[in-house]
Amino acid sequence: MSDEKQGPRTAEDGQGRRLSDEAIDWLVRLSSGRATPKDRAAFLRWRQRSAAHEAAAVEAETLLRAVGETRQADQLRRHGEPLSRRRPVGRRVLFAGAAAASVAIVAVALPSLGPLSALYADHATGVGGRKRVALADGSVVILNTATAVSIDYSSKERRVVLHDGEALFEVAKDAARPFIVVVGDVEVRAVGTAFVVRLKEVTVSEGTVDVTIGNRPPIRVVAGQRLGVGEGDRFKLSAVDIDAATAWQRGKLIFNRRPLESVVAELQRYRTGRIVVLGDRLKALEVTGVFDLDDTDRILRTIEGTTKARIVHMPLLTIIR
Predict the structure, then answer these.
(1) Looking at 61-70, 84-93, 279-288, 312-321, which range is the least confident one?
(2) Which residue, of 16, 37, 96, 316, has the fewest CB within 10 Å?
(3) What are phi and psi of 311, to 5 degrees?
(4) Is 3 exposed, middle or buried (CB count within 10 Å of its CB: 0-12, 13-18, 19+)?
């Protein structure tokens, strides 16, 4: 494995760190249950001293919200929710062409249930796990982190429901039965052989696919392209690094001048708990490197060792500041 970082070594300056620490101290005091009206008024005066004070207060509020959300998420993971009270999972159908054996990588980033879908799935992985499953027709599915799938084969079709996460499909040839993966409510029809789909994007590594968004005409996406789907059926077609997009199956994460905020969002998928980056300059810091998915702590140590960032570990929460 090679770990490397390039780009500006920027972080908050000394005054920014001091103000950030003071803001956190203020909010801890105000949320302790022992704060007085004088304390609250004093904090308001403190945050109004300058734009830097206000920015530190906003960052501290973001941090404390993250702590609360992390605790709630941990409770949900521990206790769950009755299946009868869950909303039906949205559906996106992918038809893999039967003219030849194909490889399809399908990924979805659902923000709600996460690994809880493993309770009703046929195959699943935990956070940070990967799993290879051989299907009855000779196809293979490789599950990435926190992924859950259900298999439903019939005489007319081969259907796989991807509830959560990301999966790579190596689809066996069968002209009589299309290979269908249900993921959301956008239809992607394979014209070629290999593609990646997440909830709001489609990436093609080989051949072509046709993507239908709502009632729009199909959009052709070719190898080396990614289609991002936004609100109101908006979309953006761009070039993509296929090796980086599929590196997870080799146990790697590859970044090329990616903002730290984006790197952390990707790393978050492979770790339990929450990661929060404080400071706009840190969020914009560009990261380049090849990292080992089986050692996410080392990735964080590399970030700390090659920048001026400081990393604070708490139960279920990691802060980069």
Answers:
(1) 84-93
(2) 37
(3) -110, 130
(4) middle
The answer to whether the CB of 121 falls within 8 A of the CB of 147 is no
- Res. 199: pLDDT tops 60: yes
Q: Cα–Cα distance between 186 and 79 in angstroms, integer?
A: 32
CA distance 196 to 210: 13
Could you tell me where the DSSP H helices lie in the chain? Answer: 14-30, 37-47, 51-79, 242-245, 260-268, 280-284, 296-306
Could you give the CA distance from residue 41 to residue 47 in angstroms, rounded to a whole number? 10
Please report the pLDDT score of residue 114 as a whole number: 44
- Is residue 209 within 8 Å of residue 191, measured between CB atoms? yes
Sign for the CA dihedral angle at 178, 183, 189, 193 comes to: negative
Instruction: Delineate the domains of the chain, giving CATH numbers in brackets.
Output: 14-79+251-320 (3.55.50.30), 93-243 (2.60.120.1440)
**pLDDT of the residue at 9:** 33
Give the separation between CA 321 and CA 305, rounded to whole angstroms. Answer: 13
Query: Nearest-5° angle of CA 62, CA 63, CA 69?
Result: 90
* Residue tagged 């949205």 (tokens): 90
